[in-house]
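Standup notes
- DV: blocked on the single-chain target, sequence here:
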Amino acid sequence: MNDDALQDQDPQNTDDGSMSRRSVLRTTAGVAGIAGAGLGLGTLGSGTAAAATAAGSPEAAPARQGRTMAGVPFDRRSTVRVGIVGLGNRGGSMIDLFLAVTGVQVVAVCDPVKAKAEQAAAKVTAAGQPAPAVYTNGEDDYENLCKRGDIDFVYVATPWDFHFEMAKTAMLNGKHVGVECPIALQLDQLWQLVDLSERTRRHCMQLENCCYGRNEMRVLRMAHAGLFGDLLHGAGAYNHDLRGLMFDPDYYEGPWRRLWHTRLRGDLYPNHGFGPVANYMDINRGDRAVSITSVGSPARGLAEYREQHMPAGDPSWKETYIESDRTISLVQTAKGRVIRLEHDVSTPHPYSRINSLGGTKGVFEDYPTRIYLEPDHTDDQWKDFSAYADWDHWLWKEHANPPGGHGGMDYMLVFRLMQCMRLGLAPDFDVYDAATWTAPVPLSHLSIKAKGVPQQIPDFTRGEWKKARPGMDSDKPAE
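- DV (later): unblocked, structure below
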């Protein structure tokens, strides 16, 4: 985001609009047609059979075409060469963090808006690096960036509509790739990314910055140390009033984000809430998410905001919003744990990701931060979470005041990922996590359409989840 105040409260409402498809994302013409086009969701009915047919059956795991990428390390390298695709709100700010990390070179940038690409290139040279190659020749010029032989990692920060194809293109050209949320919008797309990662031996990662929040990483270490006892339940959310931004003609390049509210009813942005709780519970590393059931409120917020703030004749008046103002989902895990997910960007309320974890010895809740653990606490009163600062992850002990927005979690994500690539370590999360954290997008929609009927979450690991392995709770490596 460009607004520092907004960055502090919104840790990733920042996918930029710079790569928007002009014929679709700049106008609302054909909204009814694009509501289902390319999504496999346009023919959804109220029955689960119709829904499963449209979105791809979640129960049918395709045969593995390669070898697992679970625990596979990067090749060690002294310098990580990065190409950045999308240089709007998100990419235009994240490039500063790539340039701030030692051992990283930005060798190419891409955005069809020439001014944005040139501004990013100027940042690279101002940082003392050679001028990067610049790709501005239309919305498909990212393909030429991905074909370069001097790029190790492609970072994608574009509208959601492009994430899947860009991730595919990067891997097919031999590049590791990291994508802003959500990594794809359909189950079959998630499976394709899993299969392609396994075939190409390239990592495909959902760059979930909230996993690197200071509170999240502290709770993670405490949970793994047994302070919460046996874990029972958790909750995460993306509850953030985005009405003003979604109707702002200048913030996003075109109405692409608002248009998704004309296409799906379910949780459009589950990753911020799901990712951290999945890490606490070692999802895909000893447990797995097996099903999701979702309900949604009526869609009223965006239409009411439009009525109050948008002039007659504004293109938004052609849009019909179906996205539930508040989506609530319950995810069941193989070990019987429960994860509650919420999504609400269409009604007035303070920002919250909930970020809660409970077990047999106590509970943590965020927004505001508070904790209660036995045997430390005995009076049934919330206690100060700062008393547990000694449990901070080594990243936060080493980088107490990190640069960048969102309270420093953006920098932590970039620093740690680049460190793993330089030192030849396995990434903290992989394509299986990306697919799992994003699966609630199509599945919550299907569940709501089926009046809350549970939907099966695929085992994207194909059984590898039964094996314990490291994840976010890493040890500090030797440089």
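- Follow-up: Residues 409-423 form the longest helix (15 residues).
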